[in-house]
Write a structure and sequence with these properties.
- This protein is mainly α and about 100 residues long.
- The chain has a domain of about 40 residues: Histone, subunit A.
- The chain has 3 helices and 2 strands; from the N terminus they run H-H-H-E-E.
- A two-stranded antiparallel sheet has the order 1-2.
- Helix 1 packs across helix 2.
């Protein structure tokens, strides 16, 4: 699938890339090659292939989300390291 120079420029604009004419030619031919390869992959028969999301056999291990109280001395040590406190809470800057 050969892309026109205008199509490559449009894609570059969408990606907010400022490309020279030489780069447009280079990346245009590379992108066209990638699209040709995708067209080849579309021809592969995958009717009997199960969808795969994880191929390594790893499984997500979850633990119960349980609240446990800290010992008083550890709590005070942690709060003592805070630059600012408000009661038993660490005061931090607002993040927007």
């Amino acid at each position: 699938m050969q892309l026109s120079k205008q199509e490559i420029q449009h894609i570059a604009d969408l990606a907010r890339l400022e490309l020279t004419d030489e780069e447009l030619e280079k990346y245009g031919s590379q992108l066209s090659g990638i699209l040709d390869y995708i067209d080849e992959l579309k021809e592969v028969d995958t009717a009997n292939v199960n969808p795969t999301a994880q191929v390594t056999g790893l499984q997500n291990v979850m633990r119960a989300d349980e609240v446990s109280a800290w010992p008083q001395d550890e709590t005070e040590a942690a709060l003592g390291q805070a630059p600012e406190r408000e009661g038993r809470h660490i005061k931090v800057k607002r993040i927007l």
